[in-house]
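Lecture notes, part 5. Sequence design as translation. It can be helpful to think of inverse folding as translation between two languages: the language of shapes and the language of residues. The source text, in C-alpha coordinates, appears below.
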Protein backbone atom coordinates (compact mmCIF):
# COMPACT_ATOMS: atom_id res chain seq x y z
CA UNK A 1 0.00 0.00 0.00
CA UNK A 2 1.44 3.35 -1.05
CA UNK A 3 2.18 5.81 1.73
CA UNK A 4 1.06 8.73 -0.45
CA UNK A 5 -1.86 8.39 -2.81
CA UNK A 6 -3.58 11.39 -4.38
CA UNK A 7 -7.21 10.94 -5.30
CA UNK A 8 -10.83 11.74 -4.52
CA UNK A 9 -12.42 10.26 -1.43
CA UNK A 10 -15.75 8.45 -1.86
CA UNK A 11 -18.83 10.63 -1.48
CA UNK A 12 -21.28 10.03 1.34
CA UNK A 13 -24.98 10.26 0.50
CA UNK A 14 -25.75 12.41 3.52
CA UNK A 15 -25.74 16.04 4.58
CA UNK A 16 -22.28 17.12 5.67
CA UNK A 17 -23.72 19.37 8.41
CA UNK A 18 -25.31 16.45 10.29
CA UNK A 19 -23.46 15.20 13.36
CA UNK A 20 -23.45 11.49 12.34
CA UNK A 21 -21.94 12.41 8.96
CA UNK A 22 -19.18 14.50 10.53
CA UNK A 23 -18.40 11.76 13.03
CA UNK A 24 -18.25 9.14 10.27
CA UNK A 25 -15.86 11.24 8.18
CA UNK A 26 -13.50 11.91 11.09
CA UNK A 27 -13.47 8.31 12.26
CA UNK A 28 -12.74 7.05 8.75
CA UNK A 29 -9.99 9.65 8.31
CA UNK A 30 -8.35 8.52 11.54
CA UNK A 31 -8.64 4.91 10.39
CA UNK A 32 -6.84 5.74 7.11
CA UNK A 33 -4.00 7.34 9.07
CA UNK A 34 -3.85 4.35 11.41
CA UNK A 35 -3.53 1.91 8.51
CA UNK A 36 -1.08 4.05 6.49
CA UNK A 37 1.40 5.30 9.11
CA UNK A 38 0.51 3.50 12.31
CA UNK A 39 -1.34 4.19 15.60
CA UNK A 40 -0.99 7.42 17.53
CA UNK A 41 -0.34 9.59 14.48
CA UNK A 42 -2.17 12.86 13.90
CA UNK A 43 -4.74 13.28 11.14
CA UNK A 44 -4.93 16.74 9.55
CA UNK A 45 -8.31 17.76 8.11
CA UNK A 46 -8.99 21.06 6.34
CA UNK A 47 -12.52 22.46 6.64
CA UNK A 48 -14.29 25.72 5.83
CA UNK A 49 -15.89 28.09 8.30
CA UNK A 50 -19.30 26.41 8.13
CA UNK A 51 -17.86 23.07 9.25
CA UNK A 52 -15.03 24.21 11.49
CA UNK A 53 -17.11 25.28 14.48
CA UNK A 54 -19.30 22.13 14.65
CA UNK A 55 -16.18 20.04 14.04
CA UNK A 56 -14.48 21.66 17.05
CA UNK A 57 -17.56 20.97 19.21
CA UNK A 58 -17.62 17.36 18.08
CA UNK A 59 -13.92 16.90 18.80
CA UNK A 60 -14.29 18.38 22.30
CA UNK A 61 -17.23 16.06 23.01
CA UNK A 62 -15.57 12.84 21.81
CA UNK A 63 -12.42 11.51 23.47
CA UNK A 64 -11.65 9.21 20.53
CA UNK A 65 -11.13 12.19 18.18
CA UNK A 66 -8.14 13.68 19.96
CA UNK A 67 -5.74 12.64 17.18
CA UNK A 68 -7.46 15.02 14.78
CA UNK A 69 -5.89 18.37 13.81
CA UNK A 70 -8.55 20.65 12.36
CA UNK A 71 -7.30 23.54 10.27
CA UNK A 72 -8.94 26.26 8.14
CA UNK A 73 -9.25 25.66 4.43
CA UNK A 74 -6.94 27.85 2.32
CA UNK A 75 -9.61 29.09 -0.10
CA UNK A 76 -11.84 30.53 2.62
CA UNK A 77 -8.83 32.04 4.39
CA UNK A 78 -7.76 33.82 1.18
CA UNK A 79 -11.30 35.08 0.66
CA UNK A 80 -11.30 36.42 4.22
CA UNK A 81 -7.91 38.05 3.57
CA UNK A 82 -9.26 39.69 0.41
CA UNK A 83 -12.25 41.02 2.35
CA UNK A 84 -9.94 42.34 5.06
CA UNK A 85 -7.69 44.13 2.57
CA UNK A 86 -10.78 45.38 0.75
CA UNK A 87 -12.09 46.92 3.98
CA UNK A 88 -8.71 48.60 4.53
CA UNK A 89 -8.46 50.19 1.06
CA UNK A 90 -12.14 50.95 0.54
CA UNK A 91 -12.59 54.58 -0.63
CA UNK A 92 -8.80 55.01 -0.66
CA UNK A 93 -8.65 55.54 -4.42
CA UNK A 94 -6.95 52.26 -5.27
CA UNK A 95 -10.25 50.71 -6.33
CA UNK A 96 -10.84 53.71 -8.58
CA UNK A 97 -7.37 53.26 -10.08
CA UNK A 98 -8.25 49.68 -11.04
CA UNK A 99 -11.25 50.96 -12.98
CA UNK A 100 -9.45 53.93 -14.54
CA UNK A 101 -6.58 51.68 -15.66
CA UNK A 102 -9.08 49.24 -17.23
CA UNK A 103 -7.80 46.41 -15.04
CA UNK A 104 -11.31 45.56 -13.86
CA UNK A 105 -14.79 46.99 -14.21
CA UNK A 106 -16.93 48.40 -11.37
CA UNK A 107 -18.80 45.13 -10.75
CA UNK A 108 -15.58 43.10 -10.58
CA UNK A 109 -13.93 45.68 -8.31
CA UNK A 110 -16.83 45.38 -5.88
CA UNK A 111 -16.46 41.58 -5.94
CA UNK A 112 -12.74 41.91 -5.20
CA UNK A 113 -13.33 44.25 -2.25
CA UNK A 114 -15.96 41.84 -0.90
CA UNK A 115 -13.58 38.89 -1.31
CA UNK A 116 -15.83 37.08 -3.76
CA UNK A 117 -13.37 36.74 -6.65
CA UNK A 118 -10.05 35.21 -5.64
CA UNK A 119 -8.21 35.02 -8.96
CA UNK A 120 -9.01 38.53 -10.12
CA UNK A 121 -8.34 39.82 -6.62
CA UNK A 122 -4.85 38.32 -6.74
CA UNK A 123 -4.19 39.93 -10.12
CA UNK A 124 -5.40 43.35 -8.98
CA UNK A 125 -3.24 43.35 -5.85
CA UNK A 126 -0.16 42.03 -7.68
CA UNK A 127 -0.40 44.77 -10.34
CA UNK A 128 -0.93 47.39 -7.63
CA UNK A 129 2.06 46.09 -5.66
CA UNK A 130 4.29 46.30 -8.73
CA UNK A 131 3.29 49.92 -9.34
CA UNK A 132 3.71 50.93 -5.70
CA UNK A 133 7.07 49.17 -5.38
CA UNK A 134 8.34 51.02 -8.44
CA UNK A 135 7.43 54.34 -6.78
CA UNK A 136 8.84 53.18 -3.44
CA UNK A 137 12.10 52.05 -5.02
CA UNK A 138 12.51 55.36 -6.82
CA UNK A 139 12.05 57.31 -3.58
CA UNK A 140 14.22 54.94 -1.54
CA UNK A 141 17.18 54.93 -3.93
CA UNK A 142 17.31 58.68 -4.44
CA UNK A 143 19.77 59.08 -1.60
CA UNK A 144 21.96 56.06 -2.35
CA UNK A 145 23.66 55.88 -5.74
CA UNK A 146 25.76 52.89 -4.64
CA UNK A 147 22.70 50.77 -3.83
CA UNK A 148 21.08 51.95 -7.06
CA UNK A 149 24.05 50.67 -9.06
CA UNK A 150 24.07 47.29 -7.30
CA UNK A 151 20.33 46.76 -7.73
CA UNK A 152 20.48 47.88 -11.35
CA UNK A 153 23.19 45.36 -12.23
CA UNK A 154 21.40 42.55 -10.43
CA UNK A 155 18.12 43.42 -12.14
CA UNK A 156 19.78 43.16 -15.53
CA UNK A 157 21.21 39.75 -14.60
CA UNK A 158 17.78 38.53 -13.48
CA UNK A 159 16.20 39.80 -16.71
CA UNK A 160 18.85 38.03 -18.81
CA UNK A 161 18.41 34.77 -16.86
CA UNK A 162 14.63 34.89 -17.28
CA UNK A 163 15.04 35.59 -20.99
CA UNK A 164 17.20 32.49 -21.37
CA UNK A 165 14.55 30.54 -19.44
CA UNK A 166 16.98 28.08 -17.83
CA UNK A 167 16.12 27.00 -14.30
CA UNK A 168 19.74 26.70 -13.20
CA UNK A 169 20.66 30.24 -14.27
CA UNK A 170 17.60 31.75 -12.59
CA UNK A 171 18.37 29.95 -9.32
CA UNK A 172 22.02 31.06 -9.42
CA UNK A 173 21.10 34.69 -10.07
CA UNK A 174 18.43 34.57 -7.36
CA UNK A 175 21.08 33.38 -4.87
CA UNK A 176 23.34 36.26 -5.95
CA UNK A 177 20.50 38.74 -5.43
CA UNK A 178 19.77 37.43 -1.92
CA UNK A 179 23.47 37.56 -1.03
CA UNK A 180 23.83 41.12 -2.35
CA UNK A 181 20.74 42.28 -0.45
CA UNK A 182 22.11 40.82 2.78
CA UNK A 183 25.60 42.26 2.29
CA UNK A 184 24.33 45.75 1.49
CA UNK A 185 21.85 45.64 4.44
CA UNK A 186 19.03 46.82 2.19
CA UNK A 187 16.31 45.56 4.52
CA UNK A 188 17.73 47.57 7.43
CA UNK A 189 18.09 50.64 5.21
CA UNK A 190 14.47 50.29 4.08
CA UNK A 191 13.34 50.13 7.72
CA UNK A 192 15.26 53.33 8.46
CA UNK A 193 13.77 54.98 5.37
CA UNK A 194 10.26 54.01 6.50
CA UNK A 195 11.00 55.47 9.94
CA UNK A 196 11.81 58.84 8.38
CA UNK A 197 8.33 58.89 6.83
CA UNK A 198 6.38 57.96 9.95
CA UNK A 199 4.65 61.36 10.03
CA UNK A 200 3.45 61.03 6.44
CA UNK A 201 -0.10 59.55 6.58
CA UNK A 202 -0.27 58.66 2.88
CA UNK A 203 3.08 56.86 3.03
CA UNK A 204 2.07 54.89 6.13
CA UNK A 205 -1.28 53.80 4.67
CA UNK A 206 0.36 52.77 1.40
CA UNK A 207 3.10 50.77 3.12
CA UNK A 208 0.53 49.08 5.36
CA UNK A 209 -1.47 48.02 2.32
CA UNK A 210 1.71 46.69 0.68
CA UNK A 211 2.50 44.61 3.77
CA UNK A 212 -1.01 43.17 3.93
CA UNK A 213 -0.99 42.25 0.23
CA UNK A 214 2.46 40.64 0.46
CA UNK A 215 1.49 38.61 3.53
CA UNK A 216 -1.57 37.33 1.67
CA UNK A 217 0.61 36.35 -1.30
CA UNK A 218 3.03 34.55 1.05
CA UNK A 219 0.11 32.51 2.36
CA UNK A 220 -1.00 31.64 -1.17
CA UNK A 221 2.54 30.66 -2.14
CA UNK A 222 2.85 28.45 0.94
CA UNK A 223 -0.30 26.56 0.02
CA UNK A 224 0.80 26.04 -3.58
CA UNK A 225 4.32 24.90 -2.70
CA UNK A 226 3.45 22.86 0.39
CA UNK A 227 5.67 24.99 2.65
CA UNK A 228 4.15 24.38 6.08
CA UNK A 229 6.49 26.73 7.97
CA UNK A 230 5.74 29.64 5.62
CA UNK A 231 2.04 28.74 5.81
CA UNK A 232 2.03 29.02 9.61
CA UNK A 233 4.13 32.21 9.65
CA UNK A 234 2.06 33.98 6.99
CA UNK A 235 -1.17 33.04 8.75
CA UNK A 236 0.18 34.19 12.10
CA UNK A 237 1.20 37.65 10.89
CA UNK A 238 -2.13 38.19 9.10
CA UNK A 239 -4.32 37.22 12.06
CA UNK A 240 -3.98 40.66 13.66
CA UNK A 241 -5.74 42.17 10.64
CA UNK A 242 -8.71 39.85 11.21
CA UNK A 243 -9.02 41.29 14.71
CA UNK A 244 -8.61 44.88 13.50
CA UNK A 245 -11.25 44.56 10.76
CA UNK A 246 -13.83 42.58 12.72
CA UNK A 247 -13.23 39.17 11.18
CA UNK A 248 -13.40 37.64 14.63
CA UNK A 249 -14.66 34.23 13.53
CA UNK A 250 -11.57 33.70 11.40
CA UNK A 251 -9.28 35.18 14.05
CA UNK A 252 -10.58 32.77 16.69
CA UNK A 253 -10.57 29.84 14.28
CA UNK A 254 -6.91 30.42 13.36
CA UNK A 255 -5.90 30.77 17.01
CA UNK A 256 -7.60 27.48 17.87
CA UNK A 257 -6.04 25.64 14.93
CA UNK A 258 -2.54 26.91 15.74
Amino acid sequence: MEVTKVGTLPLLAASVHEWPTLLTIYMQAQNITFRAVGPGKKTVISVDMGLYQPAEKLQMAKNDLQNLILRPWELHIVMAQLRTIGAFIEDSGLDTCWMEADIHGPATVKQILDGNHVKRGEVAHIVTLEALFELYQKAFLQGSKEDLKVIGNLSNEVADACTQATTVDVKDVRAEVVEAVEQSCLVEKMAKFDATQEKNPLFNVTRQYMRMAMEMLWFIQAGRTGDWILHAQALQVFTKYFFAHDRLNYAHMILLSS
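The translated text above is only one of many valid answers, since several sequences can fold into similar shapes. DSSP finds twelve helices and two strands in the chain.
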